[in-house]
Amino acid sequence: MKVALVHDYIKEFGGAERVLRVLSDMYPNAPIYTAFRVKGSSCDKEFADRKIVESPLAIFIKHWNLYSPLRFLIPIIWGSMDLSEYDLVITSCSSYFARGFKVSPSTIVVAYCHTPPRFLYGYETSINLQRYWIVRVYAMVVNHFLRIFDWHSSQRVNKWIVNSDNVKNRVWKFYRKESEVVYPPVEVEKLINNSKGIKKQNYFLIVSRLVGAKGLVEAAEATKHGGFKLKIVGEAVGFSKIKQELEKIEAVELMGRISDRKMMGLYAKAKGFIALAKDEDFGMTVVEAMASGAPVIAYNGGGFKETVVNDKTGLLIDSTDSLVIEKAILRFEKFSWKRRILINQSRKFSRELFERKIRKIIDMIVADEK
Q: Where is the Glycosyl transferase family domain (predicted)?
């Protein structure tokens, strides 16, 4: 069976790209088709061992972050890709759609959906450029046509797989398609083994792209007032100025992008983990923290409600206001967190479970099509 993988774009290496990495390991001979590839980027380095095929329009959108303002080209970008030679196409789709490519009538298309494009349906996004009136007008026109493309391309998928019940509801709401939940793959056992016997240190940890929708500045202010250090792992993205704001706050250490080995060490030593994105699609970092024995303070929304057990593996809070976060930290300090409970919860989201479920779903689809 000839298999191809599709992904939005190869740029930053985040949760969606970790899923792609596992899918690529499962199908090592499958090329990866993508809108564009930024050579030398963190994501590009992770897929240096794979064949990556860019769209013909990649040269026009990959530089100076033009892929976002030129998003009206998305239907042309994906429509220019002919994947009709493949028996199975697995698309890892999110904000840049990764659908609408050409396939043959016999090609099976499976979508692993991280989320329908957030900017199309009123969800908070990383960078709020629509505060400018000219951007709002532009977005109103372009997004209308992109929603039409999003709907039509969604109807050409044979099987929808989603990363959470949260996204399952969105897929039904916007596409009227049933989907199956397969939680993203987390290297749980590696994290558990790495954190054994390691003494906790007096800092909280955040792992996030440095963007405005993640509550980073509020968390930094709260930990500062509480007398704790805060380490933040992640890269600045697009036009966001959050990095400059964080650099002005004392007791905050910006780590940038670091190796997986160093990342595991930070998880293991952290006294707690903070995740404040509103309506997060899933949130793999929360699971990684729990597997490392670090309880979580998370916003009570989105995928966090599926991963964090309130008062057992962390605290769920209803606001990202710095005062609310500070009060949560004070409450956090009074708990006696149980490593065993944290680890047992994290094992529900292991890589092994992901691979087993994906293979079972795809085997059933292929068998049904024969």
A: 194-348
What are the structure tokens assigned to 150, written together? 């999003």
* Contact in structure between 252 and 258 (CB atoms under 8 Å): no
- DSSP 8-state secondary structure symbol assigned to residue 330: H
306: which 2 tokens? 């599926």
Alpha-carbon distance values, 188 to 184, 256, 289 (Å) = 11, 23, 10
pLDDT at 140: 87
Q: Tens digit of pLDDT for each residue in 305-337?
A: 999 999 999 999 999 999 999 999 999 999 999
pLDDT at residue 29, as a whole number: 97
CATH number of 188-348, picked from 3.40.50.920, 1.20.1250.20, 3.90.1150.10, 3.40.50.2000: 3.40.50.2000
Classified by CATH at the fold level, domain 3-185+350-369 comes out as: Rossmann fold (3.40.50)
| Rounded CA separation 135/140 (Å) | 8
Q: Which of these, 261, 218, 256, lies nearest to 237 by C-alpha position?
A: 256
State the pairing for strand pair 272-275/180-181. Answer: unpaired
Least confident segment among 94-108, 119-133, 210-224, 287-301: 119-133
In tens, the pLDDT along 94-129 reads 999 999 999 999 999 999 999 999 999 988 765 555
Cα(72)–Cα(77) distance, integer angstroms: 9
